[in-house]
Amino acid sequence: MMQKIAKDHPDQDITLRWSPGHEGVHGNEEADKQAKMAASGKQHNSCRSALPTFLRHGSLPLSISALKQAHHKDTHARWSRMWAESPRYTRLHQLDPLILKRSFIKLTTKFSKRLTGLLLSLRTRHVPLNLHLHRLGKSDSPRCPYCPTIDETVHHFLFDCSQYQRERHILACALGRQATSLPYLLAEAEATPHLTRYVNATRRFKPTFGEILMPALEPD
Ligand SMILES: [Zn+2]
């Protein structure tokens, strides 16, 4: 870049100098904190006589970004209070206390609705496998279609069913011992593409979810 600028503007003399940033400098950090508090309108500002002349009359200008930040914080606090009082909160909390934690929301932010739905289903056990379908009256039996004496649970589908040995082997090759950890498979971003591949390969959820687009694998 420097070479290009020098080539395009041979008549100009350019010098680069390094200068320290604000981070870690106590005075700068403190000034930044005070400025943000004042800009949000939540802190008493200096008395008017101590302000520069042009700021002594009328109300002080507020920072749009600080106002947005404060609004976002208030909205989130209000949402948290309303949600905690909702009748659905207790029920969902019993199913999976971690489901509405920030980590799960962060995990699924960039996922498709279909993939997020799959993860929610697996975590809450409200999943199109026979044990749950039977409870809903949508399957004649709670048993696994391939293992006539065993209920088709999430655990059986992921870890035990002999029908999916090949798919499970591929999962184990990718994730090692972690492939047998349900919390890991359902909550860790690096596991999701492999879990998605497993679910797609078994074709067990295809009638409900169709083919689920895999999230990109993180580079090594
Ligand atoms: Zn089975």
Automatic annotation (TrEMBL):
Transmembrane segments: none
Listed SUPFAM superfamilies: Ribonuclease H-like
Tree of life domain: Eukaryota
Location of region: Disordered: 1-42
PROSITE patterns reported in the protein's UniProt record: RNASE_H_1 (PS50879)
All residue ranges annotated as the RNase H type-1 domain in the record: 1-40
Comp. bias (Basic and acidic residues): 1-14, 23-35
GO MF assignments: nucleic acid binding; RNA-DNA hybrid ribonuclease activity
Protein name: RNase H type-1 domain-containing protein
